[in-house]
Amino acid sequence: MAAMVRALGFFLILASWGGYGLSADLRSLELDRGNRPAEAGIFICGGEVEQAVWTSWETSVKRYLQQDLLEHRLLNHGDVYALYDFEIFAHNMVLMARRCHRTHRLREVAELINKSYSALTEGTALSPGRRWICRGGSVCTNKNHLLDNEVILCSVQFLAMAASVANALAIQERSLTREDKAFIKETVSVAADHLLRWGGWVTVYRLKWQAAASADDVTNSSSALFFTDKSLWMITIYSELSGIVRNLSPAAAALPSGFAERQRAHLKALLRLFKSRVTIRHLPFSRIGPVDVADIDRGYWRLYADNQYAGYENEKKPALCTIGKEAGSTQKPELQISPSAVTRRQDTGWDFSHARRLVPALDAIGRNREALQILFALSRDDLPGNDLATSFANNLLAVIWNGDVAKPLFANYWSGANGWFRVAYDNGTGECREGYPPYGLTDAFATGGYAAWTRYRPEIGLPAKALYWLLRDESRESKAFIAKYYPSFSDNEDGRITALTQFAFQASLVAVGIP
Fold first, then answer.
1. 146 has a pLDDT exceeding 90
2. Cα 449 to the center of its chain, rounded Å
3. Tell me: the pLDDT tens digits for 229-264?
4. Which residues contact 228 (CB under 8 A, 6 or more apart)?
């Protein structure tokens, strides 16, 4: 019966949203459940939710980022995954601070980012340019070949956020302080060092080769033909650098001489690969009506080991950690179901968690579209279409979301597949990992900032707002649901992690159009 009520509620939503306005009946349907308090204006700049974000920032989050991540892990132990975690927890707040014009908060983030630059290592004559080298921590090991090497994913992900902060400050050209200018110049310099090293002619050739390949060219479990999040982050950095130059000029931004001309081929190759891997499909009878949806790298990941159980949607675990051992131990999981016994999905591309990178990337491209064209002499056709973000948002609503307003869940794969992800995953650390079950990546909706896509499809505000209230519901049923599908928000999780994930989620809700 409850499922029927939720389904009825969803169809009422569709019927009432012809002009993207909530009907009075629907608003009553939402607010009556759980006797929620009045919520008018709580998601706007200056509202209750933004105030909660800054309270968390001042009381715990800023200290954690500075002391635990930067000082302890990065500076003292050389653990570059601190950069990765910094972006995961802080990027939604950076985007919120930009939306709400909180320049003083952006300066606080810039101060923290500056600390990371002291951990950079100088390059060599054969490989010039500064970089972060992984010297310790739990992830970098000899087995996975990350120890004493640059971990590009950590660097590129962190630099994308750093460049976003620098660009947001650069907009305030007339009120920039000496510290602001120094931070912007250093960020531009560090980002340029990395892009010059990452974007040489060999890389450009490889990107062109990838763009010419089809999904049928993938014949084994190699990732050689994938469009990965590293490439998407590089596009994001180029976008933010373009915005900085637009606001400050190349000289004031301290962009290396000839950088744009030299890196134009790299950027064009990245954009060409991205465009070649976006699949637009028209769904005439989706749950939100006839709509175009966007998928990424559709079919290219079907043979990849992480995704070999994408077609297995049973809750029975296909792999078990040794009896008496917990997931995360040093025991290797034992397979209960062979991959050969599972029907392999042919449409598998990115998973729902990794696809969160699309949120800041498409935001950066959209904000800096004209600046990209000017700085790198691009044509409009070189860039993704203006409506691409909407097509990805459509996919989130029509394909990935379960359509349940009361208890929103999200499939594990961007294609809509909801099978197991990363069964018996081995990242070289020796940890025992059974894998993520159906809907096991759901909490990426909250931490990944997907709620910000409400500005492209207002209906996304419904599951976002529903989750906001679910997290405050003290009933046993709601707590059990959160513990199962949103574990990082659960009472069973470490309190510090819960605070950080709440911080990231709440920041994604502010000033994006949620009523």
1. yes
2. 7
3. 999 999 999 999 999 999 998 888 999 999 999 999
4. none
The tens digit of pLDDT for each residue in 452-470 reads 999 999 999 999 999 999 9
Query: Longest Cα pair distance anywhere in the chain, in angstroms?
Result: 70
Burial class (CB in 10 A: 0-12, 13-18, 19+), 49: buried
pTM to 2 decimals? 0.92
Please return the burial class of 203, using the count of CB atoms within 10 Å of its CB with bins 0-12, 13-18 and 19+.
middle
217's enclosing H/E stretch is none
**What are 442's two structure tokens?**
């759901």
Q: How far is CA 337 from the centre of its chain?
A: 31
Amino acid at 34: G
Q: Is 101 helix (H, G, I), strand (E, B) or coil?
A: coil
Tokens of 97: 């601070």
Bridge partners of 280, per DSSP, are 294
119: three-class secondary structure by DSSP? coil
Give me the pLDDT at residue 330, please.
Answer: 61
Q: How confident is the model at residue 184 (pLDDT cuts 50, 70, 90)?
A: very high
The half-sphere exposure of 29 on its side-chain side, counting CA atoms within 13 A, is: 18
Give the C-alpha separation, 155 to 149, whole Å.
12
Residue 170 exposed, middle or buried by CB count within 10 Å (0-12, 13-18, 19+): buried
Average pLDDT, the chain: 91
Token pair of 59 as six digits: 């009381």
User: Contact 125/79 with Cβ under 8 angstroms?
Assistant: no
Q: How many CB atoms lie within 10 A of CB 332?
A: 16
Residue 304 pLDDT greater than 60, yes or no: yes
State the pLDDT confidence band at 107, using cuts at 50, 70 and 90. very high
* pLDDT band with cut points at 50, 70 and 90 for residue 136: very high
Long-range contacts of 60-65 (CB under 8 A, 24+ apart): 60/496, 60/499, 61/89, 61/90, 61/499, 61/500, 61/503, 62/108, 62/112, 64/496, 64/500, 65/89, 65/90, 65/112
| Distance (Å, whole) CA 379 – CA 370 | 10
3-class secondary structure per residue, 259-317? HHHHHHHHHHHHHHHHHHHEEEEEEEEECCEEEEEEEECCCCCCCCHHHCCCCCCCCCC
Q: What is the DSSP string of 391-442?
A: HHHHHIIIIIB---SSS--B-SBTTS--S-BSTT---SS------B-TTTTT
